[in-house]
């Protein structure tokens, strides 16, 4: 899909490299599981089923988890109006529009392609932002759809999800309690599966985090260039990040699983170490980039 969003060749290259590396890791992971579990059919069927479910139903899963519901232009005329104008400006298909009845101020885009994309905003975001700030946030989310990185991050997240599930299964399995030789062999096999899965999860975690941080910077850049108002996006970032810091910790934890898809992460200010493993660049890094774009747009020529 071509649009008027500013293309980002570095983002495209990073997505290709990440998917390639995760693909190699995925093939190796499945091969190891087949050797350890001695049941290639079971492993392949389960893996293919989970991947297909995540790819085809990612939008429904995300909306269900975030209590989002699709809304019509009659129900949300202002929200639909802003998205209509942005899609016309960007020359891209209009995604479905959803609202989540959460006070957590945030927004996200999901879906396997532009024809099945959904842009969802929370009632907390709609209540807090001015019109120009909301436009900046929605342009940010639409750029994720235009750049196709929503589908890439959904597919990329799959390997980490399945590896994490296997680690939990092996850890909580009751088969560790046996006494005989057969039970000891089973326990050793499960320990090996858990170790391999943990390693795969760690590698995929780092690859996805690195891609996710860059794609957020790319979306900020594309949104600022499309709207021509980087200051409005910077204002939205500052306002939303400040308000998230005051949201109860329990409410933040329920949303943290979707941090990679959010406009801003559902976390308070982190340490230098935690920022290295964050799905988003630091607020200051994003504001500095927007300030640079603002200077470029207001400069001579």
UniProtKB/TrEMBL annotation:
Enzyme Commission code: 3.4.24.-
Domain Peptidase M48: 73-292
Residues binding Zn(2+): 140, 144, 216
Cofactor: Zn(2+)
Molecular function, one GO term: metallopeptidase activity
Domain of life: Bacteria
Ranges annotated as spanning the membrane: 12-34, 40-57, 150-175, 187-208
Keyword Zinc-finger: no
Membrane topology: Multi-pass membrane protein
UniProt keyword terms in alphabetical order: Cell membrane, Hydrolase, Membrane, Metal-binding, Metalloprotease, Protease, Transmembrane, Transmembrane helix, Zinc
Pfam family, one: Peptidase_M48
Free-text remark on how the cofactor is bound: Binds 1 zinc ion per subunit.
Compartment(s) of residence: Cell membrane
Positions annotated as active site in the UniProt record: 141
Record's keyword annotation contains GTP-binding: no
Predominant localisation class: membrane
InterPro entries (UniProt xref): HtpX_protease (IPR050083), Pept_M48_protease_HtpX (IPR022919), Peptidase_M48 (IPR001915)
Record family assignment: Belongs to the peptidase M48B family.
Name of this protein: Protease HtpX homolog
